[in-house]
Design brief:
The complex is a heterodimer of chains A (433) and B (302). With 433 residues, chain A is mostly helical. Chain A has 17 helices and three strands. The longest helix of chain B has 27 residues. In chain B, 52% of the residues are buried. Classes of the chains: A mainly alpha (433), B mainly alpha (302).
Chain lengths: 433, 302
C-alpha cells in the first residue's frame, strides 16, 4: 500500500502523538516506581496484565475500554500480592518470587491469547504478535478508538499524582513517618500497582506488553541522573519519554523497523547520554571534577613549597623550577605551574626560576596557616607523635575552607602562634584588606 | 521395539534434549536463586536477543551454533553493561536490571522485525521461536549441541559442588578462607548463561528465567539439605522439559515456552501445597490449634 505524502505525514504525526501520550503516562508512574525501588515489580506487572487482557477479550470481545482497564488494575494488584505471598510462603528472596509470578502469569497470558485468537471471537482479531510487540502504526490509524483510553489514562495518572502529591512524596521518602501520621502507605502502594497495570494496559496496543517496561523505567532513570528535585524528575522523565517517541519513530521510519523497539532503543540512548554527559552525576563531569581537584591540589602544593622556601631562606626566594617536588603526578604539576603563572600568583624573572607575587604569597600563607593550625589541633586533640602530624595536615589542607580555619584558630586560642614544630603560623589576612 | 524407536526417533531426541536442558538449568538455577541472582538470568536472556539477530544477519540464516554464540556474547555484554551501571551511576540495582533488560530487548525486537521484513516468510518462524520457544522442528544436530552443553554443565557443577555450596551460603566466610569468591560467582554466572542460552530455542527469551527459578523454588519446599535440593531441582527441571515437550508436541501452533513454564508452575503449586514440612497443608495441620497466643512484641513492631 502506497501512502501519499500528506497521508504519511499525518500518520507520522499521529504515531508520535500516541507515543508521547503513552510514554508520558508511563514515565510519571515509572518515577514513583523507581524512587520506591519497585522497578522490577513494574516489569512483573507489565507481564502480568497479559492474562487479564486475554480474559477480558474472551469475555467482552474487545481489547480496549473500561472492563479491560478495570480487570488489568485488579491483575496488577494481584501480581503485587502474589509476589508477596510467594516470597513469604516459599521463603525465597524477592527477585525469585517475582520470577515465579511474572513468568507464570505471562505464560498463562500467551496461551490464553493464542486460544482467544484461535476462537476468532469478537469484532477485532486478537493477534498474538500485536499483543506482545504492539503495533503503534495501527493504533495511529484508528485514533478515534484508541486515543480516548490513552489520554484518559494519562489524565488519570496526572490527576492522581497531583492530588496525592504530598502523600506519595512522604510515602516514597519516609514510609515510616507516612505510616505514623496515618497516611495508609499500603493503600497507596496498591493504588500505585493498579496505576502501573493501568498504564501497561493502555499502552500494550501501541508498544506491546513486553516493551512497556522500557517506557516505565528508562525515562525515570534518565531523569534521575539529571536532577535531584522531585518535580523536575517527573517533568524530565516525561520529556525523555516524549523525545523517545519522536526519535524512535524517526529512526523506525528510516529503517522501516519496529516503532516500539526503536522507542525503547531511543530511551536507552538517552540514558546512555545522561550517564556520560549529565551535568552533575555524569561520568564526564565527574572526571572533569576530579581533574580540577587534582590540578588545584598540585597548584596548592607548589604555592606552599615556595612559601616554605621563602621562610627558610628569609628572602623573596628564587626557586629553580627543577627543584619543585613533583608529587604524585608530574605532568599535572607542570600544568598547575602554568595556571599559577597565568593567574599572576607566580612569576619567573629568568627562565627556570620561580618567585611568589604578593597575591601568591597571600594565598600560600593561607594554605600554610591551615596546615599548621591543623597540626596544632592534632597535637592537642589526637595525641599523635610529632612526626605523624605533617602527613594528615598535608592531605587536609586542600579541603579546609575559611569557616573551618577560623574555627580551628578559635579552638587553639590566642597562644596559637607556633606550630608543633616551632614554626610560625602565618597570621590570618587582615579583614580591612 | 526398533520400529517404535525409528518412528519416534525425533520425538525421543527432543524429549532427551529438553529433559537434559531442564535438569541443567534446574541445577545451576538453584545456585542462582540461593545467591539471590535469580533475575540476572532474565536480564541475560533479554540481552541475548540482539546477539541472536546479529548472528543471524552475519551468518545469513538460521544456524544454531552461530546464533547461540551470538546470544552468549550479547547476553554477557548485557551483564557487563548492568555491572557498569551499578558501578558508575547512582541508579539502583533493580532499575539497572530493568533498563538493560528492556533496552536490549527493544533493540532485539527492532533487529528481528528487520530480519523478518528482509527475508520474508522463509525464516519468519525461525526467529519468533526464540522469543516464545519452540520444541518442534529441531534437527538432530541442534539437539546434540544442546544436550552436549547441558551435559558439560552438569559435570562442571558436580565437580565444583563444594566450592559453589560454600559461596552460596556464606560468601563472607569463603572470602576469609581465601576462596576466590568473585571468580566462583563469575563461574556460576557463566554456567547460568550457558543454561539460558541453550534453553533459548526451546523456552524462549521472555520466560527462560522460569527454567532457572521455578525448579529450585519448588525444590526448596521439600528439603533443607542442599544436595537433595539440587537433585530435586534438577529432577523438577527435567520434568518441566519432558512434560512440557509432550504437551507442546500435541499442538504445533502453540509456542513451547509458556507450556513448559506452566508445567513448572504446576510443580511449584503442588510442592507448595503438599511438601511434608514446609507445605501449606502441612503447616495448616501443625497450626490447627495454636498452643500459645502470638507475642505482643511482634504486633507492636508491625
Amino acid at each position: 500500500m502506497m501512502l501519499a505524502i500528506s497521508d504519511s505525514w499525518l500518520l507520522a504525526r499521529n504515531t508520535i502523538l500516541v507515543g508521547m501520550v503513552v510514554n508520558s503516562a508511563c514515565a510519571i508512574v515509572g518515577c514513583w516506581l523507581l524512587l520506591r525501588r519497585l522497578s522490577l515489580l513494574g516489569d512483573a506487572i507489565s507481564h502480568g496484565v497479559l492474562p487479564g487482557i486475554a480474559l477480558a477479550f474472551l469475555l467482552t470481545g474487545k481489547v480496549t475500554g473500561l472492563p479491560i482497564l478495570a480487570g488489568a488494575m485488579l491483575v496488577g494488584m494481584l501480581t503485587a500480592f502474589l509476589t508477596q505471598t510467594v516470597k513469604e510462603q516459599a521463603n525465597v528472596a524477592e527477585d525469585a518470587s517475582l520470577g515465579v509470578v511474572f513468568t507464570t502469569l505471562f505464560a498463562a497470558g500467551v496461551l490464553l491469547i493464542h486460544y482467544a485468537a484461535s476462537t476468532g471471537r469478537g469484532q477485532v482479531d486478537l493477534d498474538p504478535n500485536c499483543v506482545l510487540y504492539g503495533d503503534i502504526l495501527f493504533v495511529a490509524l484508528d485514533l478515534g478508538r484508541t486515543l480516548p483510553t490513552m489520554v484518559g489514562m494519562l489524565l488519570g495518572v496526572a490527576v492522581f499524582t497531583l492530588l496525592f502529591w504530598k502523600e506519595l512524596k512522604l510515602a516514597t521518602f519516609d514510609p515510616a513517618l507516612a505510616a505514623a501520621v496515618g497516611l495508609r502507605p499500603t493503600l497507596l502502594y496498591y493504588a500505585l500497582m493498579a496505576l502501573t497495570a493501568g498504564v501497561a494496559v493502555a499502552s500494550f496496543e501501541a508498544v506491546g506488553s513486553i516493551l512497556v517496561v522500557a517506557m516505565l523505567i528508562v525515562p525515570a532513570a534518565t531523569a534521575q541522573l539529571l536532577t535531584e528535585r522531585l518535580s523536575r524528575l517527573l517533568a524530565l522523565a516525561v520529556l525523555v519519554g516524549c523525545i523517545s517517541s519522536a526519535i524512535g519513530y524517526a529512526l523506525a521510519a528510516c529503517w522501516n523497523a519496529s516503532v516500539a523497539g526503536m522507542m525503547a532503543a531511543a530511551a536507552g540512548l538517552q540514558f546512555a547520554l545522561a550517564v556520560f554527559f549529565a551535568p552533575k552525576h555524569g561520568l564526564l563531569s565527574q572526571a572533569l571534577q576530579r581533574l580540577g581537584l587534582r590540578l588545584r591540589i598540585a597548584r596548592e602544593d607548589i604555592l606552599s613549597q615556595l612559601y616554605r622556601r621563602e621562610e627558610e631562606t628569609q628572602r623573596s626566594a628564587i626557586f629553580s623550577a627543577a627543584q619543585l617536588k613533583a608529587g604524585s603526578a608530574p605532568h599535572w604539576s607542570s600544568i598547575a605551574l602554568a595556571q599559577l603563572r597565568r593567574r599572576g600568583l607566580v612569576v619567573s624573572p629568568t627562565s627556570g626560576e620561580l618567585v611568589l607575587t604578593p597575591a601568591g604569597r597571600q594565598a600560600a600563607a593561607d594554605l600554610v596557616r591551615t596546615h599548621r593550625l591543623w597540626e596544632r589541633f592534632l597535637e592537642e586533640n589526637a595525641a599523635l607523635p610529632l612526626d605523624h602530624l605533617h602527613a594528615p595536615a598535608e592531605r587536609i589542607e586542600h579541603f579546609v575552607g575559611p569557616a573551618v580555619q577560623r574555627e580551628l584558630a578559635e579552638m587553639i586560642g590566642p597562644t596559637g602562634e607556633l606550630d608543633p614544630h616551632g614554626k610560625a603560623i602565618p597570621a590570618a589576612p587582615s579583614p580591612a584588606k | 521395539m526398533s520400529d517404535f524407536l525409528k518412528q519416534n526417533y525425533n520425538t525421543l531426541l527432543v524429549l532427551a534434549g529438553t529433559s537434559l536442558l531442564g535438569a541443567a538449568a534446574g541445577l545451576i538455577g538453584a545456585f542462582a536463586v540461593l545467591r539471590r541472582k535469580a533475575l540476572l538470568g532474565d536480564a541475560l536472556a533479554h540481552a541475548a536477543l540482539p546477539g541472536l539477530c546479529v548472528a543471524f544477519l552475519l551468518v545469513g540464516g538460521r544456524h544454531l551454533g552461530a546464533m547461540l554464540v551470538g546470544a552468549f556474547v550479547s547476553g554477557l555484554l548485557g551483564l557487563g553493561v548492568l555491572a557498569s551501571i551499578r558501578r558508575f551511576t547512582k541508579v539502583k540495582d533493580d532499575a539497572a536490571l530493568g533498563i538493560v533488560l528492556s533496552v536490549f530487548f527493544g533493540v532485539g525486537i527492532v533487529l528481528s522485525r528487520h530480519i523478518q521484513q528482509a527475508t520474508m516468510a522463509g525464516s519468519k518462524a525461525g526467529l519468533d521461536s526464540y522469543i516464545l520457544g519452540k520444541t518442534a522442528g529441531m534437527i538432530a544436530a541442534d539437539l546434540y549441541l544442546i544436550a552436549g552443553a547441558a551435559a558439560a554443565l552438569l559435570i562442571v557443577v558436580l565437580l565444583a559442588y563444594k566450592e559453589f555450596r560454600l559461596v552460596s551460603f556464606d560468601p563472607g566466610f569463603a572470602q576469609s578462607q581465601g576462596w576466590p569468591v568473585g571468580r566462583l560467582d563469575l563461574a556460576m554466572m557463566a554456567l547460568a548463561a550457558v543454561a539460558v542460552v541453550i534453553g533459548l530455542p526451546t523456552v524462549g527469551v521472555v520466560m527462560i528465567a522460569a527454567l532457572l527459578i521455578l525448579p529450585s523454588v519448588s525444590a526448596r519446599f521439600w528439603t533443607e539439605r542442599l544436595g537433595l535440593m539440587l537433585f530435586l531441582s534438577a529432577a523438577f527441571g527435567a520434568a518441566m522439559g519432558f512434560v512440557g515437550t509432550i504437551f507442546s508436541a500435541r499442538s504445533a501452533a502453540l509456542p513451547a515456552g509458556p507450556i513448559i513454564v506452566l508445567v513448572g508452575a504446576a510443580i511449584f503449586l503442588l510442592s507448595g501445597a503438599l511438601a511434608p514440612r514446609r507445605g501449606i497443608l502441612a503447616r495448616a495441620w501443625r497450626n490447627r490449634r495454636p498452643l500459645e497466643p502470638p507475642p505482643l512484641a511482634e504486633e507492636a513492631a508491625t
